[in-house]
Amino acid sequence: MLLCLMSGCTVIGIAIGASADREKPEKKDYAISEIEHIKPGKEVTVILNTKGMISGEYVRTTRITDQEYDSIFGEFREKSSDLATIPGPGDIITILDLAGGQWIFELIGYNYDYLTVRRIGETDPIVFFIRNIADIAAGSETTISVEELKMMIAEKKMPVLQAMVLNINGDTVVIAASRVDRVFSIDKKNRIWKGLAIGLAIDVALVIWFLATLDLSSLS
Fold first, then answer.
1. Pick from 136, 158, 127: nearest CA to 32
2. pTM for the structure as a whole
3. Residue 189: alpha-carbon gap to chain centroid
């Protein structure tokens, strides 16, 4: 009887877990602007704008090189007239902040919630958060509002500096976020082990109860 107690719920738990494993795996989609929140080591599939597909282990986010961003920005500008008058990489811009201050920088590139810039004549990049900006001006006639900038980034009309790093069979691959259409993962977690753990825990509790019952019986 004790053996039955110790195995019954465990077997049931394994059966439940195995049944769950036979169900359709859960698919999770990630917004391109939120890929930095993917857990490192997670297996993901990246669908590119060209409809190509790349699968690998997510490692981290990074920033593409200035040269690659300049190339991608040029591609976007050729496809969309909206970027014709928008400041691009290498342009000198004036940032008007919400406190009324003015800052003159060389633009490196845009990102989802900040601009990457550098002071004139310097090489180190500086991050300037979009939430602190009122307007961005380049020259005397070109001005872009923060709302316009946010809209263009959200609609994927503005390339960003962000990229994701994947480990594909031991090789490191960097994919520019602006070349990505969508990212998703498939939950292939083996639920049979969860069922085993739950069933075993119940079995242990039943055995303890059974032994306690025997002790009480012997005293009466």
1. 158
2. 0.71
3. 19
